[in-house]
Each structure stands twice: as structure tokens, then as C-alpha cells.
Amino acid sequence: MRRALGGLLLAGVLGGCSVDFQGWAGMKDQPKGLPFRENAFFADGRTMREPPPDTVPRSRRGVSRRFLTGREAPDAGYVEELPLALTRELVEGGQGSYDIYCAACHGVLGDGVSPVARNMGLREPPSLVDLPEYEDGYVYAVISEGYGLMPGYAEKLTPTQRWAVVAYMRALRESQRARLEDVPAEARARLLQEGVP
Ligand code: HEC
């Protein structure tokens, strides 16, 4: 009796399973529009629809093209200077992102010295503190779109975070070329007391 009951229960469970499974297969194979497939329902024969003219993505409302691309216009030059206020908070945020996403290759100091750099056979990540004087928008575009063997970071960093990395790179660069005379007088005395490396 017990065994019979067990068998009945098992059959019930398996039966349930197979019904479920068929249901899923049915859903999977039903007629539906996939993004890049043809679609006879629409006049243009495509499944993907065009957004109505002048549609503005909500995430980009109020943000200019130069802020998003680092370029003055599609075929024009790069934005010369950071298009947002340079604050300590911005630079520190940039340092956070730099240390996570860039330092592994370009080195914590930006000098191109890192275990990854030593082992990258095809092309070593260059020192970022010795690059020629680029516009801020150029560096922003490299971070967004990538450069040669380097991947872009648009999916990992928001536009503001990318500009923050640009700001931090400037700070890194300055930190390694600053002379004692560049330091404000009051801080200079402190540095001399503590000893300048
Ligand atoms: C996987 C390693 C790697 C990571 C991570 C990486 N880079 Fe690079 N980067 C490279 C390499 C390699 C090059 C040189 C590419 C080439 O010449 O093909 C390069 C080139 C550059 C250049 C020079 C462009 C020029 O005109 O010479 C800049 C600026 C730069 N990277 C910034 C960054 C920043 C900022 C980050 C972080 C958001 C970053 N990189 C993350 C490997 C990396």
C-alpha cells in the first residue's frame, strides 16, 4: 500500500514536471518578434521600431552632446577643458574609479608601471603622466570609446565618472612634476619641515 502510494506520488511529480516543461517549450517556440528579425506585421518589414522623431532618452535629459562625447560637434575638435566644476569631491571620485579601472594596467601612479603592463606582450599600457598635452575631451573620448588595444569604459563608468577620471589624471600628472615653488607658501613650510622626498 505504502509503495503504491509512493509510486502514485512520484508519477504525480513527474507528470507535473513534464506538463510544466511542455508549457515552457511552447512559450519558447511561439511566434514572436525578435529584435533583428523580419516582421511582416509592420510596413517597413522590421521588428525593431524607430523611436518617434525628437525622442530624448530620459537618462540624458538636460545633458549636452559635448558632455556626453567630449567633442564640440560630431566632426569638430575635442572639448578643451572639463565641462563640469572642478571640486575636491570630483577628483576624489575620479581617484576611486581610476584605482579600480585603470591602475591595473597604467599603474597606481599613472606611470605605466604595473604587473599587467610588464606582461602585456602586444603593446604595453603607456605612462599617462608623460602623454603629450591633450585636451580633456580627448582623454574623455579615449576612456569612453577605447583606444587601439584598450577597451572603452562607457559601460562601466557614467559620463560624470569619466570626467572625474580625467580630472584625477590631471592631478596625478601635476603631482609628479610639481616643484617646491608651485606649492603655496604656508604648505611649503610644512613640507620642508616634514621633509620633501
Ligand atoms: C587592460 C589594460 C588597460 C586598462 C585597464 C586601461 N588601459 Fe589605457 N591603455 C592601454 C593600452 C595597451 C594602451 C595603448 C593602446 C594602443 O596603443 O593600442 C592604452 C592607452 C591609453 C591612453 C593613451 C591614448 C593615446 O592617445 O596615446 C590613455 C589616455 C589611457 N589609456 C587612459 C586609460 C584610462 C583613464 C583607463 C581607465 C578608465 C585605462 N586607460 C584603462 C591599456 C589599458
From TrEMBL:
Pfam families: Cytochrome_CBB3 (PF13442). GO terms for molecular function: electron transfer activity; heme binding; metal ion binding. It comes from the Bacteria. Keywords: Heme, Iron, Metal-binding. The keyword Flavoprotein does not apply. Residues 89-173 form the Cytochrome c domain. The keyword Secreted does not apply. PANTHER family: LIPOPROTEIN-RELATED, QUINOL:CYTOCHROME C OXIDOREDUCTASE MEMBRANE PROTEIN. This is Cytochrome c domain-containing protein.
